[in-house]
Amino acid sequence: MDLQLSEFENRVLEGLKICGVDLQGGQGAPEKPGVPAIGAAVSGGADSLSLLYSLAEITRALSVSLKVITVNHFIRSDEETCGDAQFVLEQCKSLQAAGYDLSCELVELPRGAVDELARKRGGGIEEAARYLRYQAFEAFMKKNELEVLCLAHNKNDQLETLLMRFLQGAWSESSSGIQMRRPLSGGQAAYVRPLLNIDRSEIESYLKERGLTWRTDATNSDTAYFRNRVRVQLVPLLNENFSGWQKALLNGAEKALLDAEVINQQVELIEIDKTLEEEGQLSLSISVFKNLLPAIQIRLLMKMCNMLGLESRIPYQFFKDFLTSFACKRYSDIEISIKKDRLFVKKCKKIHTDLVFFDIIKEEGEYDFPFGKLSAGKELLFNGSATGFSPKFPFAVRNLGPGDEVLCADGNMKKVADVFAGWKVSAEDKSLIPLIVDLQDGEIKALCAAFLGYKDWIVK
To answer: What is the DSSP-derived secondary structure letter of residue 232?
Structure first.
């Protein structure tokens, strides 16, 4: 069948097929018997705008309905965030007027909802926004009986994600990057990413050929965000000095996924005792556990933590320390212990508000703190997460104290409590964030919170 699609639109159609969505074969989510429909999440940026227009052409050619959702998070100025939402609505109205079978729904999150959730979850604004956005997506799919919602992640997003996860020391399945199809739990519905094999330059060329402009998020150039530093600083360096790095990285991700599938298959075979799950506790036979390979042991512990609804990102070093000693270990709200012939993973209540720690680091090495592991060398690492800060030995590591101030780039001093407020640090995490203090002048040289999902403040 000749669908009269452009080269770009045919590539998107091929991407849909790779994701398991064969519209030509009648597959997709039924809006009503005999009339398939698919969904698309559109923000107004170049990626999602190319997704909207390419899907509009594909669905019209195949007599498929297209249902669009756009989410206003209210985490930027009204001019930006409301402008983005209005832009998407106008684009959809323009397509409707041109005869495309398309509808659009704007979901506006309650003002302050993202900030409030960030405080509760302690994972930062971006993580909270993503959580609420995907909640809106799932509700939209259920309401419209959609089995497919298309997201606009592209090849550049994939490469940036892989670099980020490598630098963060991610697990093998995380090192496999963004998946083209991610099923939702408890059903056949799935998120699909038909642009994942398409480069950003191709996306922009497609939009320019159609005479389309797009919205640009001002925060995309803010290098305080890890992803933006990777995009603006690391990727150009790799492009200039390491030809073929993109293909090598993508091949490595594919191999990592294959390895993860084997390990996770073995983990699923281990019997976990859920008798006390409602009380926040899981267990299994210690003899069974000790006979497993370390890779399977660690994944099994992670699985048990996830089953208990862990609230913190638990570092690899925590599990490694437990396997070395088999002594009781606790990190944030998770405790792993051995009693008689059983291994227990327990979710504890957080009690950080009265926590006080202070230590002087005189030489290079690894040190245990309530927040986890500090590795002191030419650079400070917290639970394996790099800071880019080179310490001057000896120095002090402590948590927040009354009246603490830190030097700003403009030469003025700012209260550390105000910095934490700007980062939306949760009450539970405030006393866990380490402050690095110069012992000669007593000044705070760094606030290290990126490993907890916030930012690092380095005094230059």
So the answer is: I
pLDDT at residue 122 in the model: 59
- pLDDT tens-place string over residues 81-126: 999 999 999 999 999 999 999 999 999 999 888 888 877 765 677 8
Contact 281, 344 (CB under 8 A): yes
Q: Check residue 2 and give its pLDDT.
A: 57
Structure tokens at 343: 């291994």
Total number of residues shown for the chain: 460
Cα separation values, 277 from 129, 274, 282, 346, Å? 29, 5, 6, 9
Q: Which residues pair with 373 in a beta bridge?
A: 368
C-alpha 374, offset from chain centre? 23
What pLDDT is attached to residue 160? 94
Calpha distance 271→79 (Å, rounded): 54
pTM of the model: 0.69
Q: Collect all residues with Cβ–Cβ distance below 8 Å to 376 and sequence separation of at least 6.
A: 361, 363, 364, 365, 366, 367, 391, 393
Q: Where are the beta strands (DSSP E) in 316-392?
A: 329-331, 334-339, 342-347, 358-361, 365-369, 372-376, 380-382, 385-386
Q: Torsion angle, CA of 140/141/144/149, rounded to 10 degrees?
A: 110
In terms of Cα–Cα distance, which of 82, 62, 49, 47 is closest to 10?
Answer: 62
Tell which phi-psi region holds residue 435, choosing left (phi > 0), alpha (psi between -120 and 50) or beta. Answer: beta
What are the residues whose beta carbons fall under 8 Å from the beta carbon of 61, sequence distance 6 or more?
A: 3, 4, 5
**Given the DSSP bridges, would you call strands 385-386 and 380-382 parallel, antiparallel or unpaired?**
antiparallel
Report CA-CA distances (Å) from 236 to 178, 229, 239, 387. 21, 11, 5, 21
Do 267 and 300 form a contact (C-beta atoms < 8 A)? yes
